[in-house]
Design brief:
Oligomer: homodimer
CATH architecture of the largest domain in chain A: Beta Barrel
Largest sheet of chain A: 12 strands, antiparallel
Number of domains of chain A: 2
CATH superfamily of the largest domain in chain A: Acyl-CoA thioesterase, double hotdog domain
Shape of chain A: globular
Order of helices and strands of chain A: HHEEHEEEEEEEHHEHEEE
Structural class of chain A: alpha+beta
Number of strands of chain A: 13
Radius of gyration of chain A: 18 Å
Strand order of the largest sheet of chain A: 1-2-4-5-6-3-10-13-12-11-9-8
Distance between the termini of chain A: 47 Å
Largest interface: A-B, 61 and 61 residues
Helix content of chain A: 10-25%
CATH topology of the largest domain in chain A: Porin
CATH class of the largest domain in chain A: Mainly Beta
């Protein structure tokens, strides 16, 4: 099929069909499959895609919170995107992703809220600068560290805080820095940026050098770049870093920043992650 | 009325009456009034209170995202709290706060999502330590910096990054640190912690030393403390710090951490804030 040969795997993964105003169906794809469901980043991108397709959309994404309520299973899903409040320059969204449960009734697998806005030029400034690191060509591409298909959808070139090679409880920090881009190349947009905001392996694995069950429960991404700045980034590398703040009683939080290669802050993102043991 | 004489202003502000399963009414109070509506932190606390009162609640708060869709006006409001998914140890919530609009129809003023969970003892560690600063007795209580009533509901003792005394565009950093506690004293709980997570004046005012229109659009708070740790904190001071990351085209994001006086991380919080000019 010509269609499948030419569409980018990310576009295929977030492809939605409108059933009714604000109601869309999509389906999971192998390319972004994680261990027991799709990569969380691609689910976030799909939620955002529903907003971007909505005929009442005002402006561009400013904030997106996605809550992973339960595993998304292989196959079709339904996303409902509701613009619950539209102001002069901002718009507020509530979303759900549903799939049929064991008894056939629809079950909520994911929830989200988002803010979109028409942005105007104002005073601006970066208080967190991109660290000075050598360019991506100076770092080896990471071999797939675990057998999740989605890992192959990214070219990751770790700068620091690499995936542990041994699980010997020797961890001493939770910071990872990486140069990354989509494979195959794809011009950056809000959806791929939302997905990339979730590409870090669990900080608890790095901090402990111990692999325990872990999964994102909720992620919030703030978009600082506008369309023109994303277009300007194009298919270039993103520099992304993430670190943990507090690990306690089954949950830790992660703070992350994503810049383009010119040092422009694209997004900041935070998440709370469940872990065991 | 004895009732009003003995109830703490925060408890009065978040007092809700159950209309139906998951549907509550409350009303704004003067004690937490901001300039054109209630202090955002007290609205967040009210949303959380609806969850805490819900008969189906599982566990304690882990994550709370509140989106300020429009100004909450003086008077009654209705909160709907819906536990859309309950798992074995986690529960996912969607909430709205509504008030009658100009035409009498209900309008969504606030949306929220939350995760609650039954937490179990695990390995844990703090990767962001509380800064070493002298105790609260070493700092003067801040005089009300602006004429918002809610400011008097807190005893704030700024350590650094004080409210600017002159608006001369001389700002050079966005970090504020403060010792703070409720006035009058009130043992810390999840609601007062949610409220305190929003107590910083807009970072853009500090960073620029210029006062421009600004307001929180969305706040996400991750709760690291459990009930016992909140009880242990009691009416003691909290040490809170906040800084901006990126200011661009009408929005900036703020990252914040709140510890108790023993250096225990209570919560981490992030928000995206609208500003003009």
């Amino acid at each position: 099929m010509t269609h499948q040969a030419t569409i980018h795997p990310l576009d295929e993964a977030i492809e939605l069909r409108e059933l009714d105003r604000g109601i869309y169906t999509g389906r999971t794809t192998r390319a972004y499959w994680n261990m027991v469901g799709p990569f969380g980043g691609i689910t976030a991108a799909s939620m955002l895609q529903a907003i971007m397709l909505h005929p009442q959309l005002l402006g561009d994404p400013v904030s997106l919170t996605v809550n992973y309520a339960g595993a998304v299973t292989e196959g079709e899903f339904t996303i409902k995107a509701n613009p619950v409040r539209t102001n002069r320059s901002t718009q507020h969204w509530m979303l759900t992703l549903e799939q049929p449960g064991a008894d056939g009734a629809m079950v909520v697998a994911t929830t989200a809220t988002a803010v979109t806005a028409v942005r105007r030029e104002t005073w601006g400034l970066s208080d967190v600068r991109m660290p000075e690191v050598p360019g991506p060509g100076n770092f080896e591409r990471a071999a797939p560290a675990f057998s999740s298909e989605w890992f192959n959808a990214y070219e990751m070139r770790p700068v620091s805080g690499n995936f542990p090679q041994v699980w010997d409880d020797s961890g001493d920090a939770s910071l990872s820095q990486v140069w990354v881009r989509d494979v195959p190349g794809r011009p950056l947009d809000f959806m791929s940026l939302a997905a990339a905001s979730d590409l870090f392996f669990p900080r608890v694995w790095l901090r402990r050098a111990r692999r325990v069950p872990a999964g994102t429960v909720s992620i919030t991404t703030y978009f600082h770049a506008d369309r023109a700045q994303l277009q300007q980034t194009g298919t270039g590398y993103i520099f992304a870093q993430a670190s943990g703040q507090e690990f306690r009683n089954g949950f830790f939080d992660q703070t992350a920043q994503l810049w383009n290669a010119d040092g422009l802050m694209l997004a900041t993102s935070n998440q709370i992650v469940y872990y065991k043991e």
